Here is the input.
Amino acid sequence: MFKKMTLPQLHITGFALVLVLFLLLWGFGVRAYTNKQADLEKDTKAKQDNGGTAEKVQAKTKELEKEKKNSKQAEADWKVYSGKYMPDLNFSEKTDLITLYQTGLVKVDGATYGLKDMPTVWGRWVESWYDAQRDKSVTRNVPTFAIGSYATDPNTISTLKSITFPDGGKPWAVSVTAKDFDSAMAHLRRFNSMEHHGVPVVSGVAISGHSPNLLLNYNLALYVIPGAEPPKQDPRIGGAAKSGGAGGGMSGMMPGMGGMSGGPSGMSGGPSGASGSGGGAGGSGGGSKAGAAE
Here is the structure.
């Protein structure tokens, strides 16, 4: 009988931390560099206008060039990661909010859905992702992956700074049965191939039982960070939408991950083209389909 096994916990701790760091890339990377660059531009101009010494102006100019370079790299990294994990959300101002709510917000497997359908589409996709692993000796014990519905007001779309699935910042409590330890570890690595549905964050991993019925329990949440600002509210329709990310925004799961330390490097390895040691969830397969990775 296994109780809270140390090895898988180390693996997933490192795995989840890498994904959380990726999630923070935009908020504390791209935006931070952009803000610092703006401040430096003002500071440099002020020193030039106020007749600052050549040395001080040169130092500020050098610092500004460095921040511009960092900002460009952060944006390049974000483009690579978002292309792999983020869904194709239509935030065009040319499309009215009612259409986005009803039928025109997101593309999944060649079909286009509105915001009202996202909870159902995402829930079924996650179920299919798990069911595709039956032939790999992993069976889900969770009957459904339920997601709460959105408000009926199309103006809700204007609040989508970020999206959390399932909803309310609370992850799914997942339980699967694996044939053996290797099958359980392979299942956890397959989260690397969960593409175009948000970044999967796994936490609280525990294994109990023994082969051929190892019980694997953990929490799972998907985080979506849109690549563009959502359309503005339309005062002609619905009620006034509340501000903040839908489904609890980004606040729900982050606090519980503050104490995690890095695990084995084999769990990182993100999309090619991104810089830094973090990596994130690399791996082949997945795409926008719910097939299990090899």
